[in-house]
Specification:
32% helix, 33% strand, 5 helices, alpha+beta
């Protein structure tokens, strides 16, 4: 797959490649939504430090350059609302996402995933997959809404966030 653009604009929100200057906003947003995000994402269960963020931003830059992943900040009217990313897989990509609590229920992730799915296909991906814990119904509503098909269930990683059951649902849309 070719490299996506570094910035996209859709209605009132934008997707932009993470920059080192995003660190203060990212730390504040994650820590402001720890209960919400940490329920589903292991990296946010014990707090989120500047060191955690600096490491994420460093890896994000390396992964972008290598083509392993392309991670974006979701911003609404300039304010950080969450994140979405494309992760390279054999023949396709996986999309992951999260939102701060105050930005849920607006269709932001659905629209961001719709945009990145179309972009992934335009850039040569053969398929797009989305994985979520079986208990995370809201996360699973996104691929269902966008016409993805649930293709399998698989065990999640050994370490998991507190609300997770340990089984991921895997959804796929093919080019």
């Amino acid at each position: 797959m070719e490299t996506p653009a570094e910035h996209y604009r859709v209605d009132e929100f934008s997707l932009a490649r993470w920059q080192f200057a995003d660190e203060p906003d990212l730390v504040a947003v994650v820590n402001g939504s720890l209960e919400h995000i940490g329920a589903w994402l292991i990296w946010a269960t014990g707090g989120y430090t500047s060191g955690d963020c600096a490491e994420f931003l460093r890896r994000s830059r390396e992964n972008w350059e290598s083509g392993e992943a392309h991670d974006f900040a979701i911003r609404v009217d300039g304010a950080l609302a969450g994140a979405v990313g494309l992760m390279a897989r054999e023949g396709g990509v996986e999309i992951g996402y999260w939102l701060a609590r105050e930005y849920t229920g607006r269709g932001l992730v659905t629209r961001a995933v719709r945009l990145l799915t179309a972009e992934a296909f335009r850039l040569g991906a053969g398929y797009v997959e989305i994985k979520h814990d079986e208990r995370n119904v809201r996360s699973g509503a996104v691929p269902a809404r966008l016409g993805f098909t649930k293709v399998r269930e698989e065990p999640s990683e050994k370490q998991r966030a507190p609300s997770c059951a340990g089984t991921n649902f895997v959804w796929r849309l093919s080019a």
